[in-house]
Fold NolW-like domain-containing protein.
Amino acid sequence: VLIKFISELTGKNFLIDPGVKGTVTIISPEKVTIDEAYKVFLSVLEVNGYTAVPAGKIIKIIRSRDAKGKGLETVLEKRFKMPDDKIITQLLPLKYSDADVIAKLLRPLIPKTGLVIPYQDTNTLIIIDAQSNINRLIDITNELDVPGYKEEINVIPLEYARAEELAPKLLNFIVRKGRKGKSSGKDAVKILTDDRTNTLIVRATPPMFAELMILIDQLDIKIVRPKTNIHIYHLENSVAEDMAKVLSQMPGKGSSGKKGKKPPISR
């Protein structure tokens, strides 16, 4: 029903894979344009594991995992101003970094339905993914594709800490080291975050990266919250408010009216 509605609304012809089925609920408090409605439609397909692939005057609705071998639109643009969830093939030439190295770094950030291939002859990345995710990959690549000397690029998935909160702490650590003359400061290091996968992307020299990993291991830990001495009792015969007044007037355990002794102060 949804595909038929979008076809009538946009005038596009769709060829539907027999496996496409399911129920979708879309709620919009405001009216949307035809273009906006089509973008919502593409997003619905993407969330449910499908995509729209143009084939002449017909648009095929197929599973996203099957789209890699189909005739996807090839794009050379650096970035999309209004990205949607249509799967495309993006060509991304690199100036400084090695395509094979960047491809290995991007693969953990791409869903199973996507693909990244390094083409060494022209030092270009071939990325197959949704436009919305490709924008994110382009931003990351642009930050990494810069001149560097003996620098390495590493992807660090975090388990407990949040990447967006940990990155500023690492940069502050680098700045402090720079002030002490032990490093060239944060300009010598790049730290990017991918919030979707909670991952840090670090470009640094091997010695600096080793120091950062020590700090990351110390900060990416599970925080054990202290147990609070709070108990809940359900009363059967008393009024809770009256009982609270009685309990608050009772002396605390070990109270003697004397002030506690202050700890000694070292000088």
